[in-house]
Design goal:
It is a single chain. The chain folds into two domains: 166 residues; 126 residues, 2-Layer Sandwich (Heat Shock Protein 90). The N terminus is likely disordered. 12% of the residues are buried. The strands form two sheets. The protein has a three-stranded mixed sheet. A two-stranded antiparallel sheet has the order 1-3. It contains nine helices and five strands. The radius of gyration is 35 Å and the shape is elongated. The protein is mainly alpha-helical.
């Protein structure tokens, strides 16, 4: 689309470039007519004087108009060819995007069943077999990796549905203090030695989708827990005009200014020592953005 707009803007510039040439052609033609008029007024239409000078000007004007017409036809043919190429490129990119989405859906669904089986058998192995300390560590690693992959699959499926517009918010009047308190398990912060503070300013109710907003809050909360080595996490909710502002603030390392405009893109992760040690899908904040946008238009 952007390429097509650029092509059309170039076409407009070319048309503007043709306008002076057309004016020149008519001006040249008028010179001959003015000479004829001068011959009639000043020389009583005497033959062989100014009338001889008029003959080249109409021919020159016609030749100039032919040149402009030819150039416009050439430009039109080139424009049509470029538009055809742009259309083919757009169709191929759209088809590639569709195939990618189908691939993500199929792979995500196909991964769920084996991951569930692996996690189940790992749990049974630790409960029914007497394992050495090294064996217990191996089973724990299997469980942790299963949980991580399951979270990745769930994020992929959730984001795919949100991006395609397959999710419609089920709005209901909800008390935000109750929702936030229930949505955020304190033990996630406590296990990392972090303090959790929830501040809801006033008795705030909103027409929201409880499930989607809970997911968005959990993503923000788990992100804060993951990247806060020590200190606290504060969740604040308040009314600002006709909108509700929910903020998740932590005492972590923060986000560099050059990354702040990009962190809500899918699969984007700011590069620092914490993001390298803490694994993530890069979809959590992108899902938050999609859920927020859904509530804006609902």
């Amino acid at each position: 689309l952007a390429q097509a707009i650029i092509i059309l803007s170039k076409k407009n510039r070319r048309q503007e470039a043709y306008a002076p040439q057309v004016r020149d052609a008519f001006s040249i033609y008028l010179i001959g007519e003015l000479l004829l008029l001068a011959n009639i007024i000043f020389l009583d239409n005497a033959p062989g004087r100014l009338s001889l000078l008029t003959y080249p000007f109409p021919i020159l004007a016609i030749l100039l108009l032919f040149r402009v017409t030819y150039l416009k036809l050439v430009d039109k043919a080139m424009l049509q060819e470029r538009l055809r190429k742009t259309r083919r490129l757009y169709e191929s990119e759209r088809e590639a995007g569709k195939l990618k989405d189908e691939f993500v859906d199929v792979v995500s669904h196909e991964l769920r069943t084996p991951l569930t089986s692996i996690s189940l058998y790992a749990g049974l192995l630790s409960k029914t077999q007497k394992l050495t300390d090294k064996g217990e560590d191996m089973v724990r690693i299997i469980k942790d990796e299963c949980r991580r992959l399951t979270a990745l699959v769930n994020d992929l499926l959730d984001f795919s549905k949100l991006e395609k517009g397959h999710v419609k918010p089920q709005l209901a009047q909800t008390n935000l203090r109750e929702l936030i308190t229930r949505a955020l398990p304190p033990h996630l912060a406590e296990e990392r030695g972090l303090a959790l503070h929830i501040k809801v300013l006033g008795n705030i109710s909103a027409n929201i989708d409880r499930r989607l907003l809970t997911q968005a809050l959990l993503n923000l909360y788990s992100n804060a827990v993951k990247f806060t080595p020590h200190g606290s996490i504060t969740i604040t909710a308040r009314n600002i005009g006709r909108s509700i502002h929910i903020a998740v603030k932590d005492t972590g390392i923060g986000i560099a200014p050059e990354h702040q405009s990009k962190i809500f893109r899918k699969f984007y992760q700011a590069s620092n020592h914490l993001t390298r040690t803490e694994q993530g899908t890069g979809l959590g904040l992108a899902i938050v953005r999609q859920i927020t946008d859904l509530h804006k238009v609902a």
